[in-house]
Amino acid sequence: MGNLKTGLWIVIVGFVVLLFFQNQEVFLAKRTLRMDLLFAKYQSPELPDVLLFICTFAIGYLISYFVNLSSRFKFKKLIKQLTSTLDAQQKELTSLKSEIDGLKAASVEQDKETEIPLEPPFTEETPTELEDTAESPQEQKDDDKENKTEA
């Protein structure tokens, strides 16, 4: 990317130099600038047009620089604020990650101490037999109603 940018600038400067040398009589022609105010008159000495072009370019550059100066200061302040926020959030993220790692390590140690069996203990009853013995709350209510009607 740097080589491309350098090559582009060389081409642009080459065109400007070519333009200047092919039009020397236009750029080197001398003119005077006059300013007539109601209370004063001013006339500059004869200056080549190329100097007027350069001065015009420089004045335009300075005007744009100073117009955008306040926004650059605002952006610098915003960048500093966002950078400090980012640093604080990165510190918090690091502390939370270390806390999570600590909790994981403690959980693994606790699991090793208790050694939870992977399979439930074997019983003679099958799960369907266990379901048959347990009554649902609705069945209990129905049984209670039957017992009351019999009494």
List keywords for this structure.
two-stranded antiparallel ribbon, 151 residues, single chain, mainly alpha, 7% strand, elongated
Number of strands: 4
Describe the global form: elongated
Relative strand content: 5-15%
Number of helices: 6
Overall helicity: over 70%
Low-confidence stretches: none
Physical arrangement of strands within the biggest beta sheet: 1-4
Question: What can you tell me about this protein's structure?
Answer:
- The longest helix is centred in the middle third of the chain and has 46 residues, at 69-114.
- The strands form 2 sheets. This protein has a two-stranded antiparallel sheet with strand order 1-4.
- The chain has 6 helices and 4 strands.
- With 151 residues, it is mostly helical.
- Among the domains are: 21-67, no CATH class; 71-115.
Brief sketch in words of this structure:
This protein has 6 helices and 4 strands; from the N terminus they run ααββββαααα. A two-stranded antiparallel sheet has the order 1-4. 0% of the residues are buried.
